[in-house]
Amino acid sequence: MANEIPSNLKYTKDHEWALIEGDVVTVGITDFAQSQLGDIVFVELPEVGTQLDSGATFGVIESIKSVSDLYAPIAGEVLAANNDLEGEPEKCNEAPYESWLIKIKCSQETELEGLLSPDDYEKVCE
Asked: How far apart are alpha carbons 95 and 29 in whole angstroms?
């Protein structure tokens, strides 16, 4: 089954996507992640204003099969959390690239260079 990997995004080895707009990075889970998780039943996200370190856990996503931590792809401050997902976590399955989790104000732009290109991410999924 081919995974959808949009070319305008960057990716992490933890199967999260990152949309970079200036110094704001929108983060969500990839199509591959949602297909591996199965039916998502719960999403827990951080409060706005939370300071995150790169690689730190920022939340939890729970499916009928497992509970997985969510990891910050970069360091920065949480500007927004998609609290709609707390009431409708299945949106992560239905539209993983529209159902963003958090928006982070990037504190170190050099960290963005560590994110994977779509081609590199495709290799991670193989």
From this structure: 10
Q: Choose which CATH entry (2.40.50.100, 3.10.310.70, 3.40.50.300, 3.30.70.890) describes domain 10-109.
A: 2.40.50.100
Instruction: Please report which helix (H) or strand (E) contains residue 17, including its range.
Output: strand 16-21
Residue pair 94/119 in contact (Cβ under 8 Å)? The answer is no
pLDDT in tens, the chain (126 residues): 457 899 999 999 999 999 999 999 999 999 999 999 999 999 999 999 999 999 999 999 999 999 999 999 999 999 999 999 999 999 999 999 999 999 999 998 899 999 999 999 999 999
